[in-house]
Design brief:
By secondary structure, this protein is α/β, with parallel strands linked by helices. Helix content is about 40%, strand content about 15%. It has eleven helices and 13 strands. It has a seven-stranded parallel beta sheet with strand order 3-2-1-4-5-6-11, with helices on both faces. Helix 1 packs parallel to helix 2, helix 3 packs parallel to helix 5 and helix 9 packs across helix 11. It is globular. The chain starts with a strand and ends with a helix. About 50% of the residues are buried. The structure holds uridine-diphosphate-N-acetylglucosamine. Uridine-diphosphate-N-acetylglucosamine binds next to helix 7 and strand 8. Uridine-diphosphate-N-acetylglucosamine (UD1) binds next to helix 7 and strand 8.
Length: about 350
């Protein structure tokens, strides 16, 4: 069975993807510098699949170590590149950190691919490349809007670098996956989102508030041009998202791609407001989430949700989980973390 290199494989989306890859029989090698994840994630993966993936603590920015790693695992068939920094606010404060981490890592991998004869590359991109789209739901052909943060810019630049590199190397192909808002956790409760410090993203803040780790959730604005005034996003279960990666890899390995660079939106096609998320979370989990409305957050997009029909038709993939189930899984994960903390 094919061997897949997963960068950032102990991270949130990475770990869920490793599980799905192993479930269908792929051999996985994880590299991660553990800058925003924990080595214990490997235990969680092993508990779910019965297989402990190979792991190397390597920073993708370190070309020499990366080169050695490719020598050691010398028959990698595809790379899924998750490893990146992703906090929008931090990227505004430390732009060079973001350009270095996200761009140098990518260049290293693309440079090492031909040297080590790896032909297939999957890239984690984001719906952030669309900015505030003129037409909703947003399709892959919507124009790329000027980035609102260095983080967003790294995703746009990365996509361009991939296009140019694949164009120049006829043997290579890439699949760019533009994620909407991944939330939730594995149904086993063994892996989930583990934000460092105060969460930036909505769902970890919701679950941490519900469990009492945070006093109050701040809802960033209720004066947007949306039915209830709060922002709208397309929230997708992380396991659904993970499964799309497996299909993308299989499609490339089986030579079913139609272009050497393919781009897919990964979303549900349904937009939900911040207030709808809070209300549904409270209802399905029977728990209160204290919140208050505060000013808008700089750089937030008013509303965005995917037209996932290209991924549905071409990949034969759809996001299957309901938002209710997804929000239940997020809460179960937070409760598991609390129980584990008590035991320690
Ligand atoms: C953001 C980035 C996206 C990036 C992702 C990765 C923008 C516009 N988008 O997604 O490019 O890939 O992070 O981390 O910056 N919210 C609250 N209170 C909170 C947290 C969030 O009300 O404490 C609201 C936000 O205003 C937003 C929604 O919840 O409307 C989702 O926010 P978040 O989870 O941070 O994701 P995005 O901003 O969509």
């Amino acid at each position: 069975m094919a061997k897949i290199l997963v960068t950032g494989g102990t991270g949130y989306i990475g770990s869920h993807t490793v599980v799905e890859l192993q479930k269908v029989g792929f051999e996985v090698v994880i590299i991660d510098n553990l800058s925003n994840s924990n080595i214990d994630v490997l235990n969680g993966i092993e508990k779910i699949t019965g297989i402990r993936p190979a792991f190397e603590n390597i920073d993708c920015v370190d070309y020499v170590s990366m080169d050695r790693m490719f020598e050691k695992y010398n028959d990698i068939d595809a790379i899924i590149h998750f490893a990146a920094s992703k906090a929008v606010g931090e990227s505004v404060e430390k732009p060079l950190l973001y350009y270095r981490n996200n761009i140098v890592s990518l260049i290293n991998l693309l440079q090492l691919m031909p040297i080590h004869k790896v032909k297939n590359f999957v890239f984690s991109s984001s719906c952030t490349v669309y900015g505030q789209p003129d037409v909703l739901p947003v399709t892959e052909s919507a124009p790329i809007k000027p980035a609102l943060s260095p983080y967003g810019n790294t995703k746009q630049i990365s996509e361009e670098i991939i296009h140019d590199t694949i164009h120049a190397n006829p043997c290579y192909q890439s699949t760019i996956l533009r994620y909407f808002n991944p939330i939730g956790a594995h149904p086993s409760g063994e892996i989930g989102e583990l934000p460092n410090g105060v969460p930036n993203n909505l769902l970890p803040f919701v679950t941490q508030t519900a469990i009492g780790l945070r006093k109050q959730l701040q809802v960033y604005g209720n004066d947007y041009n949306t039915p209830d005034g709060s922002c709208i996003r397309d929230y997708i279960h992380v396991v659904d998202l993970a499964k799309a990666h497996v299909i993308a890899v299989q499609r490339m390995l089986n030579h079913h791609t139609k272009n050497r660079v393919e781009i897919f939106n990964l979303g549900t096609g349904r937009g939900l407001s911040v207030l709808e998320i809070i209300e549904t979370f409270e209802k399905v989990n029977g728990v209160k989430v204290p919140y208050r409305i505060v000013n808008r957050r700089e750089g937030d997009i008013e509303k965005v949700w995917a037209d996932p029909s290209f991924a549905n038709n071409e990949l034969g993939w759809t996001a299957k989980e309901t938002v209710e189930e997804t929000l239940r899984s997020a809460w179960a994960w937070e409760q598991n973390l609390a129980n584990k903390a008590k035991e320690e």
